[in-house]
Design goal:
The structure is a homodimer. Chain A is an alpha/beta fold. The first copy, chain A, has helices at about 10-20, 30-40, 60-65, 100-105, 105-115, 125-130, 145-150, 200-205, 240-255; strands at about 1-5, 25-30, 45-50, 55, 70-80, 85, 95-100, 120, 140, 155, 165-175, 185-190, 215-220, 230-235, 255-265. In chain A, the strands form 3 sheets. In chain A, strands 1, 2, 3, 4, 5 and 11 form a 6-stranded mixed sheet that branches. Chains A, B: This is prephenate dehydratase.
Chain lengths: ~270, ~270
């Protein structure tokens, strides 16, 4: 059983089917609920979005990775094609509804074509599609599958501001998968504040060993402005001696090192 | 004349008054409009939010700094105290409305106290307050000043999930201010993709000179997943020889260096 952001037709469902085509799905209202379902052991895995190629990080997911003991056991990359979907025609549309990420990804399209429409956030793109099926005034920005699921017409297709649009999902679960030869490891580090060069030293442990960082992202610690955690993804598996050696050295240099997991890379 | 996110009572208005108590203000509908007003020379400065201590970056602002020729000439830090404001009483509330950042900053409060309310995004906290003045069903999450401006009662105060909540605003304008001895410089760098250690080398130029980085933030280039720009703030003024020397060396190491400006540090 896999916990995902619902309802049916969501991009998370696409991600889940890409990762495991046969598993049963549990549709959750929001990312927090999908994580809670895993923590309460009501599902075996949860799949949640972590970054989008246009909009950047899904910050709630990053924050939940810091707050809870979660293990990343996989990743899935899904191509996002947004459709404008409604029961009504273009002239009927008074409200455009989607997940905030969907709205951001189509900001220019909305401004150009629906300048006067009210723009309203929903908890997921597929929920927006479901709500759009209840009124001709509403158009949803969501996947083609959502439109089919809720009987909506296609008013426009591929409406994202930039055509290449991908979302990376992480699979969270319990057990670290064995090395496959093409793996990634995700960590969070907290440097001491106000020590110039601290991040430089940490990155040096990886650069000196030729370890490739695929991502580095800062998030506020939520204590004071200017105090950050760094989320780092790197190529390699924690069972590789070079990776574990680098992480041991990093640990001695930082105030906190949290290892989120090692898992097969999607690309 | 300063362009800010309106309407009256917004946190941006607080920032503008903190920066210059007497300047005339122009209230804009959204961040993009505040930037446009400056580009069209309809205002002398615009003040826009760039990061919050709980929620992190205002990504639209970061993206606009990359897209347009804008000069950062100042920064302002404003303490954020969110209030739950309405014409109705707690039991009347069916809709909770705020800017998405305000909603995120009060996520736990909403989940605990208004589990069944519809949560709706508005373009600004003060616009949410204005809309709340039109219906007893709606409560806004906004500043105390917004509530006073639109005649709303206070249902709860200091409702953000973590009490220490600050937003950093940047002032964008035309001319780089002279060094004050306590300045910051903001830059964007684009490294070549897939060259391990490239970020390490860039940070080395600063670390080797003892230059303090106050912030480092990655944003997607919007081309492919895993391709990032880095936004870096550092202590010092571009007219300092050490800073300009470091930036010259950085420029020779990266695919793109954009200098956003040097300006007096707020703290």
């Amino acid at each position: 059983m896999i916990g995902i952001l619902g309802p049916e037709g969501s991009y998370s469902e696409k991600a889940a089917k890409q990762w495991n085509g046969t598993a049963e799905l549990r549709y959750c209202d929001d990312i927090m609920e999908a994580v809670d379902a895993l923590l309460r052991e009501e599902v075996d895995y949860s799949i949640v979005p972590v970054e989008n190629s246009l909009e950047g990080s899904i910050t709630l997911t990053l924050d939940l990775l810091m707050e809870h003991q979660l293990k990343i056991v996989g990743e899935v990359i899904v191509q996002i094609n947004h459709y404008l979907l409604s029961k009504g025609s273009g002239r009927d549309i008074k409200i455009i509804m989607s997940h905030p990420q969907g709205l951001s990804q189509c900001r220019k399209f909305i401004k150009k074509n629906f300048k006067d429409a009210e723009v309203r956030s929903a908890l997921s793109t597929s929920l927006a599609a479901k709500l759009a099926s209840e009124s001709k005034d509403i158009a949803a920005i969501a996947s083609r599958e959502s439109g089919q699921r809720y009987g909506l017409g296609v008013l426009a297709e591929n409406i994202q501001d930039i055509n290449e649009n991908y979302t990376r999902f992480i699979v969270i679960g319990k057990n670290t998968p064995h090395p496959t030869g093409n793996d990634k490891t995700s960590i969070i580090v907290y440097l001491q504040k106000n020590r110039p060069g601290a991040l430089y030293e940490v990155l040096g442990e990886f650069a000196g060993r030729g370890i490739d960082l695929t991502r580095i992202e800062s998030r506020p610690t939520k204590k004071v402005l200017g105090d950050y955690l760094f989320y780092i993804d790197l190529r390699g598996h924690i069972e590789d001696k070079m990776i574990s050696g680098a992480l041991d050295r990093v640990k001695s240099r930082v105030a906190m090192l949290k290892i989120l997991g090692s898992y097969p890379a999607a690309g």
